[in-house]
Amino acid sequence: MFGKSAIAATVLGVGLSLAAGVVLAASHGGGPFDAAIKARQAHMQLYAYNLGILGGMAKGAREYDAGLATAAAANLAALSGLNQAGYWPPGSDSFDNDNTAALPALWDNLEDAGRKGAALAEAVSALQEAAGNGLQALQGAIGPVGQACAACHKAYRKPQQ
After folding, report:
1. Which of 12, 59, 105, 106 shows the smallest number of beta carbons within 10 Å?
2. Which residues are paired to 102 by β-bridges?
3. How far apart are CA 88 and CA 20, in angstroms?
4. Domains of the chain by range and CATH?
5. pLDDT by residue for the chain (161 residues), tens digit each?
């Protein structure tokens, strides 16, 4: 489902955030980065919502439903394919903004963050192929998605309190 072009687009999107950051910061009212931070937080909430559906099924907390699993996995694929360049302007980190958990280290390691984003896209692609093919297939494919999310959060998000 997701080929090298989608992965390259994800990596490119993270890289382009450096160039887009100054323009984006100047174009929003309120705090200079409020809109970008809200957009990326909304994006993450959509990830969490869809992962919650799939995780609930995988854990047996909700009944497996092939159609719903397929839809949730397709949503994750769509989310992982969106260009997020505008979400990550330099200066929109937790050091400079109280309303974000994004660590400044992300901007110092954009290449690594891009690789982590590509790993997520690959894991989501495999999940999308498996999600509607039975509970065991879903259970086998969801772990790498969680691991990809955790890898980025561990490196680039303040620990939740």
Report:
1. 59
2. 157
3. 9
4. 4-156 (1.20.120.10)
5. 445 444 444 443 444 343 344 334 444 446 789 999 999 999 999 999 999 999 999 999 999 999 999 999 999 999 999 999 899 999 999 998 999 999 999 999 999 999 999 999 999 999 999 999 999 999 999 999 999 999 999 999 999 87
